[in-house]
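Obj.: predict assembly geometry.
Materials: sequence records (below).
Method: joint structure prediction, all chains together.
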Amino acid sequence: MQRTVFRSWWLPYVLVFPQMAVTMIFFFWPALKSLQLSLYRVSPFGDSMTFVGLGNFTKLLADPEYYRSVVNSLVFAAGVTVLAVAGALVLAALATQKIRGLAAYRTLLLWPYGIAPPVAGIIFLFIFHPTYGVLPYFLSFVTAYEFNWLLKGWVALTLVIAATAWTHLGYNIAFFIAGLLAIPGAVMEAADVDGAGPVRRFRSIVFPLVSPITFYLVVLNMVFAFFESFGVIDAVTKGGPGDATMIMVYKLYKDGFIGLNLGSSGAQSVILMALVIGLTMLQFRFAEKKVTYR
Amino acid sequence: MPRTTTVWRSITLAVAFSAMVALAPSPASAKTEIQFWHAMTGQLGDATNELVRQFNESQSEYEVKPLRKGTYPETLTAAIAAYRQRQAPNIVQVFEAGTQTMMLSGAVHPVYQLFKEQEIAMDWKDFIAPVVGYYSKDGNLYSMPFNSSTPIFYYNKDVFQKAGLDPAKPPQTWKQVEEYSKKIIASGAAKCGFSTGWPSWTMVENMHAWHDQPFATRRNGFDGLDVQLLINKEFGVKHVSQLAAWQKDNVYSYGGRTGTADPKFVNGECAMYIQSSALIGGFTRGVKFAWGSGQLPHWGPPYAKATSIIGGATLWIMKGKPANENRGTAKFLKFISETNQQMWWHVTTGYLAISNSAVKNLEAGYHFKKNPDQWTAFAQLTRGKATANSQGLRLGNFVQIRDVIESELENIFAGKKTAKQGLDDAVAKSNDLLKEFAAANKQ
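Observations (raw structure tokens):
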């Protein structure tokens, strides 16, 4: 560890100032604002604010529908994270093999990340929509099974998980490719000489060596699934059918911006924030022990 | 080298010059600007812009600036955010479900007051009753009716022909809808009988009104904020459980919320469709088969027959604007409610003409004889006097209530709940929302 020493005492402050300002204005201030909102009953136009203490919270915690959205969020986040991280690792492992046209493959694999979530949602709609989707249309020739996620909740949930994971795949692949390429060839060769097969090599060498990246991606994908999955849900299911795809962040949006119940929406965002902070801390506490940093 | 310098210099000059032009106050800005936020897209957006253009060209004092702000809820949210920053538009289009919220917001200027203040004469009596009823309080109109429609029954005449049904006769009763659907499916003319758009609006709200059944207590909420829903009573349960049963054998095919089921009818998958009368314009241009329309099916006795209720949106005037802007706003509203503009609006979009004189003029020009489908909605709304059950709905948190109803309908159609369970749950949740609204708005 090398300690950098600045000659003037103010320079470090100046250097961190922009980052601090951005964090304050765009993270802490809104977070405080929603904390404040969560304690009030606010009229839609914001003219009257009544202090209700923890009223918004107790109401939420007594509402079975809210728990359902929490469960949905956990399932959704777990699904997206596993699919996006595991899928990316497999694809990245394939994209680091010595094959012809490697550059083209790699470029194509990164593409999905360039697509905004709502656009990805619309693309999935055109493929999967029971009424005008391409896939159900062709499926109808071979099977009588109705791919109707307008009514089948679990199909709808699977669909939005797949769509969200897909939008994040490219990002994960980029990290894994970089991680895989950084593994020293000598180590692999040594393992080869010792007679380790591809599976053994992956388990004993590759996976531990990319574990810091995997850990980082798991945390990031989880946070992404909790907070930024809004676009796909809004474009594809809007929380339905029933409330099968109503995840916390979408319920928060719906109650706050469509239902104009800002107090409850504020309380929901505080709970969501606490939940994600808690989950991230748990991951750092337990999962990080299994991570080998070089 | 010198050449490059010259090129650069001229580019710099050009940029500087255009910046100057852009920043210079344009001489036309002497006009008073009226901000008008709306949610009309596609062909409806074009028609809205055209109305505004006509107004702007009809006089030289005011300039209405239309701006599309997204969907109905997005437009409302944007207007609220702007109001909090004291940057509200003069006019904002709000859908019917937001009526109670707007009325009690304290942020609006009731339209009847605006005209009184500005001393601009307006014949409120000439407005058609179902529209006035929905948006009035104590006999005074609070927002300016703009785009109003009502659900009607559409059917595919080609499919009727193929199935051996009379293409000139749409079904009148739900029994006939069932019978026709089964014939159609058996003959292979179409895969499904009928579908619906906006499920809560067409199948719950309007079905209650059409059968003269109360949707909520306190005269559907017109009489007070202490309201409770009544859709889990005998009629509601009967209708919804029938839909759920039909869903199983394709007599009915659920196609999602809002207008996502439209393709089912347009593709010829479903032979019949219940949707807003405002789709007539789009169907006339976009549907490849012969189609017709009829009034909503009815269950017959013991239920009475009342009228259907309207949907769509109205224009609300935001409070706290300078007097000269308010004057322009009033003039614009007066302009769009005039007979000629109303006739044009109706013919172009399929939305209802909102004044009796426009309807009379259209009749005199044989418009309805030539376009019988355009008459269906008027017939349905004016066939009798609106009763307490069919004059409309005045509910707080209505947007969320619709959502609650639609998500329970999905649970019912998926077979997860019986009609009674689902509607009971919808009522319980909605009553909570209504209680919350009453608490937030107690004076």
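Conclusions so far: The interface with chain B takes residues 41, 43-47, 50, 65, 131-132, 150-153, 238-243, 254-255, 257-261 of chain A (CB under 8 Å).
To do: check interface contacts against the pulldown list.
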